[in-house]
Amino acid sequence: MWLYLALACLSVVAAQTPQNLQQKTCSSSGQRAVIQNGSPAMIGGLMAMHHAGSGGYGCGSISTGMMQAYEAIRWALDRLNKKDQILNGEYLNNSYIPGVNLGMTVYDYCDRSSSAIASAQELYPQFSAEARDCTKNSSSVMLGLVGASSSSVTKDVNEFSSQFNIPLVSYMATAAELSDGAMYPNFMRTVPPDGPLMDAIISVMNELGWQYVVVVYTEDTFGRGAFNELRPKLVAAGKCLTLAIGTGADDTSEAAMNQVLGKALATETTGVIFFGGSDIALKLLDVAENYQNAGKLQWIFTDSIPLASTFTGKKYPRGIISVLSGSRKIIEFEDHWVRINVNNPSAENPWYQDWYQTEYNCRLPSSSNPAFNGLPTCPTLTETQRRNEFVQDQFVEPAVHAVFGYAYALRSAHSDKCGGVAGLCSQLASMTTQEFYNNYLRNISFTYTKGERVESLASVGLEPYNAAAKVRFDANGDIVDPTYDVYNFNDYPGGAAYKFRKLGSYLNGRLEIVTSRLWMYDEARNDRVTPLPSSPCPASGCRPCLGVPTQSPYMYVPGDIVINGLFSLHFQGMAPLSCGLFDNGMRPGVQYMEAMFYAINRINTYFRAIDSTFLRGVSLGGLAFDDCMDASLGSHLVTENKKPLMGYAATSSELEDYEYYRYMLLGNKELLKALVLMIKRLGWHYVQVVQSPGGYFDTMYTDFRTIAAEEGICVVANHMFMEKGDMAHVIEKLKGHSSVKPVVLLANVNHIKSFLMKVDEMNVEGHFHYLLTMGKTEESAYQGLGNVTNGLLTVDIPGPDVTGFRQYLEGLRPTQYMTNPWFNEWYEIAMNCSLDASNMRSFGVVCNDPVNTPITTKVDVMRAVFPAIFGVYALSTALHETLLHYCGSTYNGICADFMNAADKGKIMLDKIDNTVMNYNGVSFMFKDKMVNFPVSFYNYGGGSFNLIGDYRFSDSRFTLSTSLIRLYGNLEPSAVTPHCTSVCTECLYAFSHQEYIYEEGDLIIPAMFDVHYPGSLPFLCGNLRFRNGFMNTEAFLFALDRINNGRANFTLNNVKLGLLGFDGCMDNDRALTITAGLYAGIFPLEDGKFEIPMDRLLGWVPYADDFTINIASSNLLNLITPAATSPILDDKSRYTTFFRTIASDGLRALAMAKTSALMGYKYIITLNAPDRGSRDALAAFKKYMEDEGICIGASYEFDTDWHSGTVGQLHRCFKYQSRSSIQ
Exposed e or buried b for every residue in 753-777, given b needs 16+ CB within 10 A? Predict the structure, then answer.
């Protein structure tokens, strides 16, 4: 199935408070063990002591390959903490770190990434639990983590640990990808990476005479990474890689293994190289035991198989070769290992007995595990017997180095912080994890001496090293001076027990092995084969051979479900459906493309680690095309429809009509709405617009003009940039409306940049003030233009942080990264150099050290890629929900119902619309077909755009700090007062965008409410007027509802009444203009059309006195008013069509005059509202008071009809009159 991310024809790390080393504890769960319990200094350990359970859930059987490394850690910690005893002939009067014991809390994560991350969170609960659940322990510190047991899980754990600057040291993760110090800044490893290992494998192949080979790899970080490392080296060595077979990293089914073996045998090769985890490796050998003709294959493994493996009862493993990181034999650890009491092992190792019973397929009398019931009793082996069969595991020495590395770093920190005083001092405990890592752990460099208490590692006589072991790291956190050992599983010298025997080492680029001890066996694995079987090309020749991947017209990563992306990497070519030059402009499509694949990788790894049920059994893939900015080519490449289409860059409002299109960022209308709100807040009611040519910008201008009118802002002029036009001509056009200084630039960045340069050249900076969209995203385009950019205002979508994507790009190297066929082209253009010295083309120099020079040294990583990243996240989340819909809550893979469903595209679209994405505690979701990312406002000054406010589309929250804004010349916005020098006829269109109420009916009553206070312009309203305004609309609708639903005390015989309600905003000119527009058929308009049924209009219901008097004067319209009380309307001979349901103010004035006389008042103060009706009522009242002989001592008028300051005004009037002695 294809899902579309694409489209544009036209991409989490929370900031954290520094954490100190003090350990925090919460309630814990899961399988764990504590080594050296009670130690004041602890390390967190993450080890896969068990395999994953069935279907990836829970824990399965014990992992036999982990036990020696775990015991090595126990042994090393015990040795470090020894004191007051003799060791190696010397008396120890203190522990290795004076007064500070070192321990470890180890979690068994059962080979599941999600469990490993959860365990890391339990070790550092302050980063995942509520504060009340945790208790700070000032008497102990947590130094960092050791683990995990594979490269894939280590990579996933790093996603957690790197967020909080937690040191992570691995003794097993060898993937070359982890050597990227920028992407994994807090990661170190004591085992060498896979890169140099490939040279050792090539040397072994040369020794064997292997020319024609197959590679089998697991689809995970280690497997794919190792294969990608080996592939170019095979080409360079002249070897033919005829087939690469990928297999699931967790699929140990017999069917999967049969498929691998069948494909390998079909090539007629002899030599097979395997890269992957131990579970797959061991299962593959187990299935091959009985697979027909599997004996024709000979195998080279790396560290996939524990060297301690004995393969009891199996023949097929005989002759396999393991090439892996070098490891010195530690005699002291061997002594410890062979003396473990199998019936009563240390409580620090709760897994030992299960391991022993699994390894020997027996049952220990002291074991309580029912899984081993029925097995024979384990034989009692003597120490000598155990020593004879002992083979030190390849990870023992790296595990010891990991422990001693922490110990050495802590001892150095103790020396600096504690002033020679034994024990854990407060200065040491309060040190941050970052300081401990940067200043101590990262900088360790030591050679084992007798003081490190391991004489085997301090020895200078051990071949082939002839030097003591050293522990130091390079800039990427890799241990330096790696060596590699070659082992062979055989019975040398014949008749001996089968086990892994060391043949030699690969040291300093040279292979030294004893080939006479390298034994391989026949197909039945019974007899030794001499000479050693080579792997020559078949009779048909060495083909096919998979060389280094060459450029192709698409980028592809396989998956069960593929996300299809369409990107613009090149300009359009001269010929039809052809491509031109590579686009390395402000928003290169290649970054969007890489962002899509970055997100896909995150889904397949990190997201699954967090939730093992997410897309269970389904891998995401990606297929990306370059449309070369050619819509025809794009439509040619993408032909499927009725699938969700996620727009990462195209924002035109025209796309709203496409059912399956979803905006991954706000559309232009919403962005322009924010821009208009800023203009309105600044008090600018008149603007000019300059736009780029083309349909996209025409639509953008139309949208802006409409939205601006709705907010009472008039566009007095619109000007056009021509493709190669004279910018000076545009400036002269702007001067034609020089009193309107705000200018909105709806244009591409190249036009805007050229225009501003012309403004600078003509010395007309400050004549106008410019506003634009997406300026922050394209900030680099405006930097360096000089003072002309000062004062620019922009709206932009900052979006989530893309640090993870930046780190991803930093890890890509042109000589190693083969997935993207355009990456090398991008690299060369960005670096302005050639990667090929024999083909310089237009480049003047060869790229210098591209292996160590990431593309990010010259390329600004766009924050704008976040829509592509979140587009993948939204698609994957919706896909998961869709699979639940069709396949049920326990789905594992793609079910038939999903595959066969004709409406799955529609269902998935519905799931997308309900998707919620969380980032830094903020939820993002779809609203009206678009993700509601917030908009931010910026003001340019000091060489950059500075934040001044934001607008949230989801709830219309709008903030703008106008006090922070400085326009060109350091002007405040209030200093700019755009206006029309005469009547602005250009603004009459604005009335077409006023809100109104329309309720359909057989007969329709037009009404002129006053819902708002007046605005500064006829087409602009002020604040909401609740009393006598908004409440009147609701009262009208209430009455209409009762009449139409038969609840009034009269009936209309099935005639339905409707309403056409306008807002006069207490502005007589506005109300009259709206009325005139209605009868002229130009307002209101819906989609540009006048559709009001004028023949159904009844008499008007007006509210304001001025408007009522004006339209009543014509005696052409019937009027009934519930609010106009002016006594002028009392003259029925003059206003023959006027009626009202409220008493006239003339009658009220008469009643008040009569009442005042009865009360005996001699003097009166009057206060009236600032409208015509109130003033007319005052005039009538004065006449009546004069008739009664009462004096009006003073009259006052409020600023408005009523607001919170009215009481204050009244108080001031009375206070003044009391001083004047008027009664």
Answer: bebbebbeeeebbbebbbbbbbbbb
Range ranked top by mean pLDDT from 368-372, 655-659, 939-943:
939-943
* Residue 236 tokens, joined: 């360079």
C-alpha closest to that of 687 among 643, 650, 741, 732: 741
Integer Cα distance of 60 and 56 in angstroms? 9
Q: 3-state DSSP: the chain helix, strand, coil percent, rounded to 5? A: 35, 20, 40
Write phi, then psi, for 218 (nearest 5 degrees).
Answer: -90, 145
Q: 369, 45 in Cβ contact below 8 A? A: no
- Which residue matches tokens 């459906």? 577
Sheet strand arrangement including 922-927: 554-557, 620-626, 561-567, 2-4, 645-647, 661-663, 930-931, 922-927, 916-919
- 690 three-state secondary structure: strand
* Other CB atoms within 10 Å distance of the CB of residue 896: 9
Q: How far is CA 288 from CA 64, 253, 432, 520, in A?
A: 20, 13, 52, 16
> CA-based angle 18:23:26, to the nearest 5?
110
Q: Which amino acid is at 1002?
A: D
Q: What is the pLDDT of residues 474-525, one digit of tens each?
A: 989 999 888 889 999 999 998 888 999 999 988 888 898 998 999 999 999 9
Terminal-to-terminal C-alpha distance of the chain: 90
Average pLDDT, integer, range 1058-1078:
86
**HSE (CB half, 13 Å, CA atoms) of 6?**
33
Phi and psi at residue 466, to the nearest 5°: 55, 35
- Residue 491's pLDDT is 92
Helix runs in 811-865, H state only: 823-831
Count of CB atoms within 10 A of residue 890's CB? 9
> Tens of pLDDT along 747-762?
988 899 999 999 999 9
Q: What is the DSSP string of 365-384?
A: TT---GGGTTSPBPP---HH
Residues in Cβ contact with 1098 at an 8 Å cutoff, skipping those fewer than 6 apart: 1003, 1004, 1005, 1006, 1118
> What is the distance between the alpha carbons of residues 963 and 965, in angstroms, rounded to a whole number?
6
Contact 939, 962 (CB under 8 A): no
- Rounded to whole angstroms, what are the CA distances from 1129 to 138, 1068, 1117? 85, 17, 15
Decide if 107 contacts 50 (C-beta within 8 A).
no
Bridge partners, 500 (sequence order): 489
Residue corresponding to tokens 């770190």:
97
- 516 contacts 212 by C-beta, under 8 angstroms: no
Q: Which H helix or E strand runs over 69?
A: helix 67-81
Q: Which of 235, 229, 224, 236 is nearest to 816 (CA)?
A: 229
Q: Can you spell out the DSSP letters for 318-351?
A: TT-EEEEE-----HHHHHHHHT--TTS--TT-TT
Measured at the CA of 516, the angle between CA 513 and CA 518, to 5 degrees, comes to 70
Tokens read off for 1008: 């002129």
Nearest-angstrom CA–CA distance, 797 and 703:
18
Where residue 1209 falls among pLDDT bands split at 50, 70, 90? very low
Q: At what angle do helices 589-602 and 803-810 cross, to 10 degrees?
A: 100
Distance in angstroms (rounded) separating the CA atoms of residues 1197 and 1171:
9
Q: What is the pTM of this model?
A: 0.48
Residue whose C-alpha is closest to residue 122's, from 24, 192, 258: 24
Q: Quick one: pLDDT at residue 1220?
A: 37
Rounded mean pLDDT of 991-1020?
84
Structure tokens, 1041: 């509802």
User: Among 21, 5, 85, which Cα is nearest to 567's?
Assistant: 5
Banded model confidence at residue 1216, pLDDT cuts 50, 70, 90: very low
Residues 415, 345: contact at Cβ < 8 Å? no
